[in-house]
Amino acid sequence: MAEHSNWLYRWLDERVDLQGLEKFLRHKTVPYHRHSIWYYVGGMTLYLFVVQVITGILLLLYYKPTAESAYESVQYIMTEVPFGWLVRSIHSYAANLFIGCVFVHMFSVFIMKAYRKPREFTWISGALLLFLAMGFGFSGYLLPWNQLAYLATNVGTSFATMVPVVGPWILEFLRGGKEVTGATLTRFFGFHVAVLPGLTTALLAVHLLFVQRQGMSVPIVIEDEISSKKADRRELPFIPNFLFRDMLGWTLALGLIILLATLFPWEVGDKADILKPAPAHIRPEWYFVFMYQTLKYVPKVVGVFGFAIAGMVWVLLPFFDRKSNRGISNKLYTAIGIIVVAYMIIMTAVAYLAPGE
After folding, report:
1. In this predicted model, what pLDDT tens digit does every residue of 14-30 receive, in sequence order?
2. At what angle do helices 182-190 and 167-175 cross, to 10 degrees?
3. CATH code where residue 155 lies
């Protein structure tokens, strides 16, 4: 092409069809309406995952996944490695923001009914990515090998025993034995840096493929307004309009994370010691707190099975909401979703404001 005189471009174009990619991106658009802001949450989630991968690789250069060295290696990163404290703090803050964005993205998709036909598999892959994100948080929590992480992992893995028949086997699989030991740390390290990233990368590729093939979903209420001529169908060019706005959000998010990491570096805590008593009002990370608080009020077996069933229903939701699949707004499901979000927020608030209750 005459307009592309750069030899490198021509060389790559002959091998990977850059012109085809350029044409696709030039014509790619995103629906533009009053709810379009929620489309940016998906891109933010992907961006934070990339931040996690990059900072995680840097931490791997110094981290030692053994009970004898893990805590000391984290201390070394925080005190001796140039900017190690910053990288670790960014990794920790970005992890929490990443999981928060996954929750917001999932519930925004739910409220807009973007899981309806023909996007069932897009929803299923996204729901599974939510569970993998929580798995990242649970496995990574133990890696500093501090006292709080040790006790929380001990409690968290113990719930596996409530599963009939295979419960004890699941417990030993997670812990690498009957108790939380150095074998558990090594196993969780393997989950965190190999198994979960591999599964997430593969599932993320499938999820993005579905999104690209099917495009962004338009809420039912907007489609009704368009069909009744109350509103016009508008599209926003992906490049540069949507992408630049996405990148602005990424820049602001990274700035906030760096600010928090600088002002409040992530603490290391005390080294794990099985002889020390558990501190008062111990609780898991914030995204598990609503489950933890619920289990205080109901029999644990009932609670564990209740959350398991709720998780399966969540994954298979598109096949239950037949009304939305027909293009009819389902206010009942919307109300249920709002109640679920309110319940999670209330249980989390209770756990933090009244931990002794």
Report:
1. 888 888 888 888 888 99
2. 90
3. 1.20.810.10
